[in-house]
Specification:
The complex is a heterodimer of chains A (153) and B (153). Chain A has helices at 3-35, 37-73, 80-112, 123-149. Chain A has 153 residues and is mainly alpha-helical. In chain A, helix 3 (80-112) packs antiparallel against helix 4. The longest helix of chain A has 37 residues, at 37-73. Chain A is elongated. Chain B has helices at residues 3-35, 38-74, 81-115, 120-149. The longest helix of chain B is centred in the middle third of the chain and has 37 residues, at 38-74. The chains are: A mainly alpha (153), B mainly alpha (153).
């Protein structure tokens, strides 16, 4: 196994964990939102935990392994498909850390203060969070397609 | 984008959904167990029982169908070592998922609700489920490595 193959495996596994985890989260979000009550509270509890402990490290691992692959293979950072991948990574990393994470924390804070997920103060915030995370998921799938099709390569 | 690339994109998206979903499920399971709260474990097991049929099974089916279409379209041989490995491991994972993880998750959901998480029978069932799901994850990781390295290709 070459250095390139090793980092390709790390890159693909981390990307799978990140994108597949985000997709699974969307499915769980839709189900929890429809069910409401304890299920929605449990979903939000999970989201507060997995953001910093799972999605942030996976996204960093994706970009680090990706950079090593580019350097090792001699592919140019200015190639269109690499530029699209890096730009999308920056967009989704910023969205995750500075848009989604604070919103999750605010909702969990409201739930822990005794408000129900169906409370008029909480429900719109959850719906807004899920809508924003869907945009993030679309960006992630654009990256997957970009990495498969490699436009400009 | 040609026909092969279309099936490759579908195959990869399904694989990402499946593998990433399993990895995130492991993380969610560990978080629920470590919390020591029955409500967390119950919420997690309920999610898994629901996701098995509605998320993991469809992803596994789409993945294999797109994979078969890719082999036919590309001119690869089904007897090629890396394809044989991939199919064998897919079969093993589907057997574990549909034959054991699904039924065990449903049984654990029921028993957890009736007997609580301190019951020795429930704990034994939870441990068996955790062990099997980890074995399933190892199989999926081997498939990813097989698809990247392509031994014998």
């Amino acid at each position: 196994m070459t250095v390139y193959e090793l980092f390709k495996i790390i890159h693909i596994l981390a990307a799978s964990a990140w994108v597949g985890g985000a997709l699974l989260t969307q499915v769980q979000a839709a189900r929890s939102l429809a069910a409401g009550g304890p299920q929605l509270e449990h979903f939000m509890w999970e989201q507060q935990k997995v953001g910093p402990r799972f999605f942030a490290p996976m996204s960093l691992l994706v970009v680090i392994a990706g950079v090593v692959m580019v350097v090792d293979s001699g592919i140019d950072f200015q190639d269109l498909w690499i530029a699209i991948g890096i730009a999308a990574f920056i967009a989704t990393f910023i969205t995750g850390m500075f848009v989604l994470k604070p919103r999750v924390e605010k909702i969990v804070e409201l739930l822990q203060s005794g408000k129900a997920p169906s409370d008029p103060d909480v429900q719109p915030k959850i719906a807004n969070l899920i809508a924003m995370s869907r945009i993030d998921l679309v960006v992630l799938f654009v990256v997957v397609i970009d990495m498969v099709v490699k436009p400009g390569a | 984008m040609d026909v092969y690339e279309v099936f490759k994109t579908i195959h990869i998206v399904a694989a990402v959904a499946w593998v990433g979903g399993v990895i995130l499920s492991q993380v969610n399971g560990a978080l629920a167990t470590r919390s020591g709260e029955q409500v967390r474990l119950h919420g997690f097991i309920q999610d898994q029982a629901w996701l098995g049929k509605r998320y993991f099974a469809p992803a596994a089916i789409v993945l294999i169908l797109a994979g078969i279409a890719m082999v036919i379209e590309s001119g690869w041989e089904f007897a090629d070592l890396w394809i044989v490995f991939g199919i064998a491991l897919w079969v093993a994972s589907v057997i574990i998922g549909a034959g054991f993880l699904g039924p065990l998750s449903e049984k654990l959901t029921t028993e957890l609700g009736q007997k609580g998480m301190d019951d020795p029978g429930v704990q034994s069932l939870a441990n068996r489920l955790a062990l099997l799901s980890r074995a399933d994850l190892v199989i999926l990781l081997l498939v990813v490595i097989d698809m990247v390295v392509k031994p014998g290709a």
